[in-house]
Amino acid sequence: MTTHPTTVDTEAPVVVRVETTVHAPLQTVWDLHTDIAAWAEWNTDVDRVEYAGPLAPGTAFRWLTHGLDITSTVHQVVPGERIV
Question: Which phi and psi (to 5°) does residue 36 adopt?
């Protein structure tokens, strides 16, 4: 049986934590966060995104930020609450 992560891998080569307060409705934030293909349009720290969807467990996507070429894999989606 395959297990999926439920927390940040603190043993990963790079771990970044960023916190901010957003004064917007949850639906607005969720829509921006989950429109992965558009991240580079509004997030100046994201240089490129290669994402074909869907937003579902098992979907992988690549993105470039601060010179780091990152491959991320979706493990869990709870609409309006969280993406792992």
Answer: -55, -40
Calculate the CA 5 to chain-centre distance. Answer: 14
DSSP 3-state assignment of 29? helix
Rounded to whole angstroms, how far apart are CA atoms 75 and 56?
Answer: 7
Say whether 64 sits in a helix, a strand or coil: strand
Q: Tell me: the pLDDT tens digits for 56-76?
A: 999 999 999 999 999 999 999
* Residues in a beta bridge with 60: 73
Phi, psi of 77 (to 5 degrees): -130, 120
pLDDT tens for 24-60 read 999 999 999 999 999 999 999 999 999 998 999 999 9
Taking alpha carbons only, the member of 28, 62, 32, 33 closest to residue 47 is 62
